[in-house]
Amino acid sequence: MRISWITTNPTPAIVYYGRSTGSYSLSATGSTSSYTYGSYTSGQIHNVVIGPLDPGTQYFYSCGSQDSQIFNFTTPPSSFPIKFAIVGDLGQTSWTQSTLDHIAQSNYDVYLLPGDLSYADTNEPLWDTYGNLVQQLSTSRPWMMTEGNHEIEKTSSHPEQFTAYNARWLMPYQESGSTSNLYYSFDVAGVHILMLGSYTAFESDSVQYSWLQNDLKNVDRSQTPWVFAFLHAPWYNSNTAHQGEYASTGMKAAMETMLYNAHVDAIFAGHVHAYERFFRVYNNTVNNCGPVYITIGDGGNREGLATTYINPQPSISAFREASFGHGELWVVNETHAQWEWHRNNDDEFVIADSVWLTSLSCPPV
Questions:
Q1: Is the pLDDT of residue 363 over 70?
Q2: Which residue among 10, 267, 286, 322 sits deepest, i.e. has the most Cβ atoms within 10 Å of its Cβ?
Q3: Could you tell me if 283 and 241 are in contact, meaning their C-beta atoms sit under 8 angstroms apart?
């Protein structure tokens, strides 16, 4: 488990932790960095990896000193069932707060975010306010994510891409053999998660493509019977927003067959600010051996909802609605999982869309 935090003043990169509040039998040290973007200089960014940790266990921890604020988190379970909260394109609006409030009530184990976090868009102090906004949730459960287009932040005066994202949201990419924070994989409780990069090279001659090939070859479905992929720009989309973008069409052309042959169970995307669930699809056709495709870019960003859909609704599209909300993926056991979508306009217990999934076991046709 990696603990990351930012301070204004120099602070030791050390985390004290244990199973009882204020009683820390363990500690770990890490590294400190910062970055500059134009006239902005970030605070001191501390990263500390703690563990090994017991599964399904609450830990209390303090960062920098034993006298600092006490936080607590609960580790994911080691086996099924496990619940994921999923939504992208969060931003920092009143709708964002509503989404976070709903997620907080969901009793999730891990939060998975398919890109577009702060919507800072080169206004770097917004990364700080975003951190404050999500702190209540991000300090208590693991948050795992991949990048979106709003993380690029490349300008003529700052040609480097993803400077703030890579500095602030360091993912465990090296543990999966990746050389980039923009794509990686990890296992949790019988699930293999692929976090793919829509805005770094993905063509068949790219490093990401080779890494993905190797990663999928090493998946043992007897150990991780479920495989889910996350990316930002959706490969299937019947909304009029973001049609024909290379991040979608190019990546789909390069990688769709590879993920299909690997029996990936579902592929989640953001980018389009609405919700849509497709049937199992391969090559633009309903296919019972293909992944379920879900667009969940309805977290609450400042750009608003994408309210216009292509009509008539394509036969491969099962459900679509332009409302803010979030998703919950409850993986019950080795064979069955339930997906739910919850609107912000409803109470948390109201389910607007739901489907049961069966882990793929049939060979491609």
A1: no
A2: 267
A3: no
DSSP labels, 72-130: EEEPPPSSS-EEEEE-----SSHHHHHHHHHHHTS--SEEEEES--S--TT-THHHHHH
CA-wise closest residue to 4 among 60, 63, 54, 59: 63
Rounded Cα distance between 322 and 108, Å, is: 24
CA 89, CA 317: separation in Å to the nearest integer? 21
Looking at residue 361, its pLDDT comes to 58
> Residue 57 is which amino acid?
T
Q: Catalytic amino acids?
A: 242
List pLDDT tens digits, range 2-47.
999 999 999 999 999 999 987 898 999 999 999 999 999 999 999 9
3-state secondary structure 266-334: EEEECCCCCEEEEEEEECCEECCCCCEEEEECCCCCCCCCCCCECCCCCCCEEEEECCCEEEEEEECCC
Read off the tokens for 79.
Answer: 């086996």
